[in-house]
Automatic annotation (TrEMBL), chain A:
GO molecular function: transmembrane transporter activity
UniProt membrane topology term: Multi-pass membrane protein
GO biological process annotation, one example: amino acid transport
The name this protein goes by in its record: ABC-type amino acid transporter, permease component
InterPro entries per the UniProt record, alphabetical: AA_ABC_transptr_permease_3TM, ArtM/GltK/GlnP/TcyL/YhdX-like, MetI-like, MetI-like_sf
Family note: Belongs to the binding-protein-dependent transport system permease family. HisMQ subfamily.
NCBIfam families: HEQRo_perm_3TM (TIGR01726)
TrEMBL record, chain B:
SUPFAM superfamilies: MetI-like
Family in the record: Belongs to the binding-protein-dependent transport system permease family. HisMQ subfamily.
Gene3D superfamilies reported for this sequence: MetI-like (1.10.3720.10)
Name of the molecule in the record: ABC-type amino acid transporter, permease component
Domain of life of the source: Bacteria
Native source species: Desulforapulum autotrophicum (strain ATCC 43914 / DSM 3382 / VKM B-1955 / HRM2) (Desulfobacterium autotrophicum)
Transmembrane spans: 20-49, 141-163, 194-213
Phylogenetic lineage: Bacteria, Pseudomonadati, Thermodesulfobacteriota, Desulfobacteria, Desulfobacterales
A GO molecular function held by the record: transmembrane transporter activity
GO CC annotation: ATP-binding cassette (ABC) transporter complex
Key words of the record: Amino-acid transport, Cell membrane, Membrane, Transmembrane, Transmembrane helix, Transport
Record's subcellular location: Cell inner membrane; Cell membrane
GO biological process, one term: amino acid transport
Length: 217, 226
C-alpha cells in the first residue's frame, strides 16, 4: 500500500512544486513589503511626534496581541463587509504585510533606541538635518543590532505564510491539505511539505545564527 | 453597510454567543497551560541532551530542535492530525493539538534555556570548580539560579507565542476561542462581531502576560544593577 501511495505522491509532485512556488512568491514579496513598511514605521516610532508614536503603538499591540490566523480571518471576512473585496492572494499579502511590518517595526525601533544620545547630539551639532542624522549616523550603527533579529523574523514570516492557506491560497500547506484527502498518508504527505519548507527556511536560520555570532561582541 | 464600519455592530449577538465565547476562552486557557507545562518538560530534556557531550543524545536533540524551528507549526499540526491515524493512533483533536504545541514550544524553550545557561559568566563556573564543587553542585548553586533569572522573561514571551499559536487548533476543529469565531460566522454570518470579539479576548490575555513579562524583566534588571 505504501508503495502505491508513494507512486501517486510522485505523480502529483508538480502540484507540490507549484505550491512551493506560491509559498516562495508570497514569502518574498511580503518580506520586501514588510521590510520597507517596518523600517518606515520603526523610524517614525523613534521620532518626536507623540500622536504618531501612539497610533503605531496601538497598531503594533494589536498585531502582537492577536493570533495571525485571526488577523487573516479579519482581513478575509470583515474587510469585504467594510467594502474592501480582496481575492485570496491579495488578502494573504495584505495580512502578511500588516503582521510582518509590526514585528519589524519593533525590531527597528529597538535598534534605534540602542544608539546612545551622544551620537544624536554629535550628529546634530555637526549640522546634519534630522533625516541625515538618521541615514548617516544612527541607522548604520543600529543595523548591527537590527540585522540578526531581522533575519530571524524573516524565518518566522516565511513559516507564517502557511497560515494563509486557510483562505484558499494554493500554497505548500494547502497543497498538502488537499493531497492528504486524496492520498490518506498523512505522515508521508506532510513530511514532504515539511521538507520543502525546510529547504526555504533553513538557509535563513543558518544566516541568522551566523549574523548573531558575528554581530555579538 | 459601506462606510459606517462599526455603526451596525451587533452587541446582542455577542451577548447571545457569550457562553460559547467564554467556553472557548476556557479551552484556550486550558490548552495553553497544559501545553506550556508539557513543553517546559520537553524543553528541559531537549536542552540537557543538546548540551551534553554524549553524541547519541546531542545530535538527535539538534535534529529535533532544527527541524521544529524550520517548519511551520501548522504543518506540524497537520502532520500529527493526518499522520497519527495512518499509524493506527486515534486520539481526540484536542490532544493531537496539545501534542503538536508541546513539541513545537519544547524546541524553542530548549534554545531559551540553553541561551540562559550560556549567559552565565565563565568566571563564576571556574570559581565554582576551584572551590571544589562538583558538576551537580555547580549546576545547582551557580549555573541554574543565574540561568533561571535570564530565562524567565523569554519563557513568558514564549507563553504569549503559545497562546496565540493555539488559535491554529481551530483548523483541526478544536473548540477553542478562534473556533467560536468561525462558528458564529458560519451560523449567523456575522464575521465582524465574531472575529473582533475573538481578537478582544486574545488582547486581554496578551496584556496580562505582557505586563507579567515586562515586570519580571524589570525586576531582574533591577536585581542585577543592585
Amino acid at each position: 500500500m505504501m508503495g502505491f501511495y508513494f507512486n501517486r505522491l510522485v505523480e502529483i509532485l508538480p502540484l507540490f512544486l507549484k505550491g512551493l512556488w506560491m509559498t516562495t512568491q508570497i514569502a518574498f514579496i511580503s518580506l520586501g513589503v514588510c521590510t520597507v513598511l517596518g523600517f518606515s514605521l520603526g523610524i517614525l516610532r523613534s521620532g518626536k511626534s507623540v500622536i504618531l508614536k501612539w497610533i503605531i503603538g496601538v497598531y503594533v499591540s494589536f498585531v502582537r496581541g492577536t493570533p495571525f490566523v485571526v488577523q487573516v480571518f479579519i482581513i478575509f471576512f470583515i474587510f469585504p463587509e467594510w467594502g474592501l473585496q480582496l481575492e485570496a492572494f491579495s488578502a494573504a499579502l495584505l495580512a502578511m504585510a500588516i503582521m510582518g511590518s509590526a514585528f519589524i517595526c519593533e525590531i527597528v525601533a529597538g535598534g534605534i533606541a540602542s544608539i546612545s544620545k551622544g551620537q544624536w547630539e554629535a550628529a546634530e551639532s555637526s549640522g546634519l538635518s534630522r533625516i541625515q542624522q538618521m541615514r548617516l549616523v544612527i541607522l548604520p550603527q543600529a543595523m548591527r543590532v537590527i540585522l540578526p533579529p531581522l533575519v530571524g523574523q524573516f524565518v518566522l514570516l516565511i513559516k507564517d505564510t502557511s497560515v494563509v492557506s486557510v483562505i484558499g491560497v494554493m500554497d505548500l500547506t494547502r497543497v498538502g491539505w488537499i493531497t492528504v484527502i486524496r492520498i490518506p498518508e498523512g505522515l508521508m504527505v506532510f513530511s514532504l511539505v515539511g521538507i520543502l519548507y525546510f529547504v526555504i527556511s533553513y538557509p535563513l536560520i543558518l544566516l541568522s545564527n551566523y549574523l548573531e555570532r558575528k554581530m555579538a561582541v | 453597510m459601506d462606510g459606517n464600519m462599526l455603526a451596525d455592530f451587533n452587541f446582542r449577538i455577542i451577548m447571545e454567543y457569550l457562553p460559547l465565547f467564554l467556553h472557548g476562552l476556557g479551552a484556550t486557557f486550558l490548552i495553553s497551560t497544559a501545553s506550556i507545562f508539557l513543553a517546559l518538560v520537553v524543553g528541559v530534556i531537549a536542552c540537557a541532551c543538546r548540551i551534553s557531550q554524549i553524541k547519541y543524545l546531542k545530535y538527535p536533540a539538534i535534529a529535533y530542535i532544527e527541524l521544529i524551528r524550520s517548519t511551520p507549526l501548522l504543518v506540524q499540526i497537520y502532520f500529527f492530525y493526518f499522520g497519527l491515524p495512518t499509524l493506527g493512533v486515534r486520539i481526540p483533536e484536542i490532544q493531537t493539538g496539545i501534542l503538536a504545541l508541546m513539541l513545537n514550544s519544547g524546541a524553542y524553550i530548549a534554545e531559551i534555556i540553553r541561551a540562559g545557561i550560556s549567559s552565565v559568566d565563565e568566571g563564576h563556573i571556574e570559581a565554582g570548580i576551584s572551590s571544589g564543587l562538583n558538576y551537580v553542585q555547580r549546576m545547582r548553586f551557580i549555573i541554574l539560579p543565574q540561568a533561571l533569572g535570564a530565562t524567565i522573561p523569554p519563557l513568558l514571551g514564549q507563553a504569549i507565542v503559545l497562546v496565540k499559536d493555539s488559535a491554529l487548533l481551530s483548523l483541526i476543529s478544536v473548540a477553542e476561542l478562534t473556533r467560536c469565531g468561525q462558528v458564529l460566522t458560519s451560523e449567523r454570518f456575522m464575521p465582524t462581531e465574531a472575529f473582533l470579539t475573538v481578537a478582544f479576548f486574545y488582547m486581554c490575555i496578551y496584556f496580562v502576560l505582557k505586563s507579567l513579562a515586562d515586570w519580571s524583566q524589570k525586576k531582574l534588571i533591577f536585581r542585577e544593577v543592585y
